[in-house]
Structure to design on (750 residues):
């Protein structure tokens, strides 16, 4: 209750601030960040190369010292570690959280709002609305986005040529291409369906205009099996039934082996998939054959994010002012991107940074200009998507239900199960939910 | 000889009496030796258990959109009810029961057979075989699970491809095969360990008794069934106890295999259910309740096993 009042107070304060600035006043009414913070802070991240970024930051100034610690990624238990550490009061000052999990950390009260700590007009305000809405809740900003990760379809161009099909523009064309491909390679698959990646199903639904999570006044509206999602689910079920796509865990040994052998000739991924594809297929002489393409659509070009990380200040930080300086550097400074070096085909949310990352990355393995595809895909992100207050419930429910896919289960049933589990889980936590 | 023994006995009795009379210092010495144990035991065992029990009676309730502070309130046994009413928790227990039903006979039978063979001296290079049988247990559980995940994965596994070329297509990781596949890992891991325990017990069986049996005309098999088996029953019941408790703690193998297949759900066995409650659903209170239920289950089962085996031993 107390928190709610505080929140309301902050909101009205900010509203009046907006009014003041709207009236032409040039002085910022938001509390000014500590001008010259100093001290030592800790930074946890599973992202490769972040140690170098922290070192570059330490070298660039002398007031703030960042201690970097590598943590496992989310599926490797990184979030469990972070959540436990913050609850126990010994978490890091700065953490790395992906978009789907962010609201749940906010909802658990494990993050500090950045308002008043960061220079908003030079950071969040410069972002695209689709990205901004993923890090702002109840008029407060809780994270600075690092990468924006447009969902991308990767193909073996030589196999498409062999099947006599062009790059599919729509999902309908994708199915037709699959059938033609099956005719020339009956034992191979156009791509795989990944039961371990519930957020990929989320991205496909998002692209189709679904809204899994939304708010209606003081209640959550949950639509994990809404109409667009049902459409996506039955479409992919059709692809599985026709053996156009193979049900397999992405990043598994089986998946790697199939990509290398050509048993699977496509990857539904994102901009960051490039390194993984190269690593798994380079030894089989597939250089120059892989291309990036916009994900097929339902009629008009549209896309969604699949993955992407944000930087945040945790509740356990005793020096949020210094932490804020550091996350501004991480998310918006081109020196931070340069320092990280070549760590893959990064695509960054803050304007002007992507060219820096592009320069560090050698994309010559691929048969087309992958960054221009990323740019196009990024410009078509469907607006209005929001992640829910406890993604892990939906995530595990969907993954668990997908376990039956290889023995007769259906994707359509799985999204129904996930809907029921999400609603029940949120209600059990005391949240107000409307279906 | 006889007199010497009696005097020695008398001496021992006397010194025992003397020690008992110095019970004051004895108590102090005992305290000195026991304190470290009880300190660690309290810190690492009693305190967490008590904390879990306390946690399990409370619940954190949020309201509205959930972005406000959560309220902690006393809910009595509600967490326990929720756990026991949860389909996935009860399903996990059922799965575990099925697992025991396959695992215990396979592992115990295998261990007993190996131990009897080693003891009968059928195996020539006894020391070598002892080592070979024990070797899998020396591989840490996580590594074992990773190796087996590799051996089960279609497209990667040499076993699967050999079977396929022989016309048998078997997916070890699908929904139907996953339980036997995991049982197989445990059998592989634990049989050797238990062979050693049983073999040691067999070595202690008095050779005179066996000789007498042989003189009476018992062959190796008859001797094994009628003489050795009844005499190593205590060892068997100890193994049974450890196995039952160990089975309830099943966690590592399924969670590692779960990375290779979607067939292992996040709440596959009760321990995974508790983990999921704590770290995915962020419901520490429910996780505490689930852990207490698992602990109680372990207590009841161990009591049942010891009760049953002591009756067997008497008979």
């Amino acid at each position: 209750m107390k928190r709610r009042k505080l929140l309301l107070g902050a909101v009205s304060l900010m509203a009046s601030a907006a009014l003041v600035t709207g009236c032409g006043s040039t002085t910022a009414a938001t509390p000014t960040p500590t001008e010259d913070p100093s001290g030592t802070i800790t930074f946890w991240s599973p992202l490769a190369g972040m140690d170098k970024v922290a070192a570059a930051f330490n070298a660039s100034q002398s007031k703030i010292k960042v201690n970097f610690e590598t943590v496992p990624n989310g599926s490797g238990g990184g979030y469990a570690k972070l959540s436990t550490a913050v609850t126990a009061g010994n978490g890091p000052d700065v953490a790395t959280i992906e978009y789907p999990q962010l609201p749940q950390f906010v909802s658990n009260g494990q993050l500090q709002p950045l308002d008043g700590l960061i220079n908003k007009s030079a950071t969040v305000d410069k972002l695209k609305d689709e990205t901004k809405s993923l890090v702002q809740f109840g008029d407060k900003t809780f994270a600075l986005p690092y990468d924006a990760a447009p969902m991308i379809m990767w193909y073996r161009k030589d196999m498409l040529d062999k099947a006599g099909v062009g790059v599919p523009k729509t999902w309908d064309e994708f199915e037709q291409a699959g059938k033609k491909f099956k005719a020339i390679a009956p034992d191979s698959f156009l791509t795989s369906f990944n039961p371990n990646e519930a957020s990929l199903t989320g991205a496909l639904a998002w692209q189709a205009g679904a809204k899994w999570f939304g708010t209606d006044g003081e209640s959550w509206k949950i639509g994990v099996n809404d109409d667009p999602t049902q459409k996506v689910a039955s479409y992919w079920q059709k692809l599985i039934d026709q053996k156009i796509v193979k049900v397999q865990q992405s990043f598994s040994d089986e998946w790697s082996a199939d990509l290398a052998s050509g048993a699977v000739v496509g990857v539904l991924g994102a901009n960051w998939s490039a390194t993984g594809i190269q690593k798994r297929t380079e030894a089989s002489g597939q250089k120059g054959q892989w291309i990036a393409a916009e994900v097929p659509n339902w009629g008009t070009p549209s896309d969604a994010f699949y993955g992407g990380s944000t930087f945040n200040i945790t509740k356990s930080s005793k020096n949020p002012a210094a932490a804020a300086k550091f996350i501004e550097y991480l998310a918006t400074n081109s020196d931070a991107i340069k320092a990280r070096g070549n760590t893959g085909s990064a695509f960054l949310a803050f304007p002007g940074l992507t060219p820096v990352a592009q320069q560090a990355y050698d994309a010559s393995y691929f048969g087309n200009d992958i960054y221009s595809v990323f740019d196009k895909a990024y410009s078509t992100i469907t607006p209005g998507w929001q992640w829910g207050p406890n993604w892990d419930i939906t995530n595990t429910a969907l993954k668990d239900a997908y376990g039956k896919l290889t023995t007769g289960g259906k994707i359509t049933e799985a999204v129904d199960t996930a809907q029921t589990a999400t609603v029940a889980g949120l209600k059990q936590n005391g949240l107000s939910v409307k279906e | 000889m006889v007199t010497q023994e009696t005097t020695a006995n008398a001496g021992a009795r006397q010194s025992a009496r003397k020690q008992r009379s110095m019970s004051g210092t004895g108590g102090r010495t005992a305290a000195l030796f026991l304190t470290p144990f009880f300190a660690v035991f309290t810190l690492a065992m009693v305190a967490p258990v008590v904390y879990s029990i306390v946690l399990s009676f409370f619940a954190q309730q949020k309201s509205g959109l959930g972005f406000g502070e959560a309220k902690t309130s006393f809910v009595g046994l509600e967490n326990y009810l929720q756990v026991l009413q949860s389909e996935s928790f009860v399903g996990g227990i059922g799965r575990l029961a099925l697992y025991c039903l396959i695992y215990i006979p396979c592992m115990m039978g295998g261990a007993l057979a190996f131990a009897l063979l080693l003891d009968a001296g059928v195996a020539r290079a006894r020391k070598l075989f002892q080592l070979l049988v024990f070797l899998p247990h020396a591989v840490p559980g996580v590594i074992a699970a990773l190796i087996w995940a590799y051996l089960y994965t279609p497209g990667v596994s040499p076993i699967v491809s050999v079977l396929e070329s022989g016309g048998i297509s078997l997916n070890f990781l699908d929904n139907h095969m996953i339980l036997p596949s995991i049982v197989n890992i445990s059998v592989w891991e634990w049989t050797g360990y238990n062979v050693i325990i049983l073999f040691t017990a067999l070595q202690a069986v008095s050779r005179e008794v066996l000789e007498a049996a042989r003189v009476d005309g018992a062959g190796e098999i008859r001797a094994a069934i009628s003489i050795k088996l009844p005499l190593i029953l205590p060892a068997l019941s100890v193994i049974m106890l450890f196995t039952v408790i160990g089975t309830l703690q099943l966690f590592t193998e399924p969670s590692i295999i779960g990375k290779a297949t979607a067939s292992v759900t996040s709440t596959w066995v009760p321990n995974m259910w508790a983990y999921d409650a704590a770290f995915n659903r962020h419901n520490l209170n429910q996780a505490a309740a689930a852990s207490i239920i698992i602990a109680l289950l372990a207590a009841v089962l161990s009591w049942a096993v010891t009760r049953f085996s002591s009756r067997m031993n008497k008979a």
Observations:
- Chain A touches chain B through 52 residues (CB under 8 Å).
- Chain A has a mean pLDDT of 89.
- The CA atoms of residues 83 and 240 of chain A lie 37 Å apart.
